[in-house]
Amino acid sequence: MTTFTRALRRRSARRIAAVGVLAAGSLLLSACSDSDHDMSGMDHGSGKNSATATVEAAGFNDADVTFAQMMIPHHQQAVEMAQLADSRASDAEIKDLAGTIEKAQDPEITTMTGWLKSWGRPTTTDSMPGMDMGGGGMMSDKDMKELKAMKGTEFDKMFAQMMIDHHNGAISMARNEQKAGKDTDAKKMAAGIVTGQSAEVEQFQSILDRL
């Protein structure tokens, strides 16, 4: 086993652990928010305060907001990674996949930004647990610098492994949206992310196996 392969496996293990922490944190945030809404409205007969009633009447909930706020920077980093492949990758399949990722995720960023604006919610947030520490499959600044320094087959291997980790983080967040979200369009996008990125994870793993 090469030093490069061992490094990739260690990175992957850290990412898997971080994804679990982030998913748990996201569920906790959603649960706490729902709990706060219920408790604050207990004395009003309906069991819901006016803010919660307004949100529900609008057809979205806190899980939808969290999904969009977390997925926007996640997609932005995936697009940044994909753009590196054009000048650094040597494998044709890697280049094709990178192009597919960029074409799929760039428009979704615009869509999710539109949702948040229409919901009256900020498009960025500092309250997501673990995102600044590589949570949700996000790459650290160090990871990105390493990837940018690579070319050829070494880039292909690192890109494939990093994108597997990145996709797995997105899939975890999307599944949480499927379970806890309310907005029809957000849940539909989440389902598409689970299906599409799961297939890409398999394709990236197949590439790694042959490189």
List keywords for this structure.
Ferritin, 0% strand, 211 residues, single chain, 7 helices, mainly alpha
Helix content: over 70%
Question: How far apart lie the N and C ends?
Answer: 14 Å
The fold-level CATH name is: Ferritin
- Total strands: 0
Count of separate structural domains? 1
Query: What is the CATH C-level name?
Result: Mainly Alpha
**Relevant CATH superfamily:** Ferritin, core subunit, four-helix bundle
Strand content: under 5%
Oligomer: single chain
Order of helices and strands: HHHHHHH
How many distinct helices?
7
Biggest β-sheet description:
none
Can you give the mean pLDDT? 81
The global form is elongated
Structural class: mainly alpha
- List low-pLDDT spans: 16-51
What Rg do the Cα atoms give?
19 Å
Identify the CATH architecture.
Up-down Bundle
Provide a short characterization of the protein structure:
This protein is mainly alpha-helical and 211 residues long.
Your description of this structure?
By secondary structure, this protein is mainly α. The chain has helices at residues 3-40, 50-58, 62-88, 92-119, 141-149, 152-180, 184-210. The protein has a single domain, classed as Up-down Bundle (Ferritin), CATH 1.20.1260. Helix 6 (152-180) packs antiparallel against helix 7.
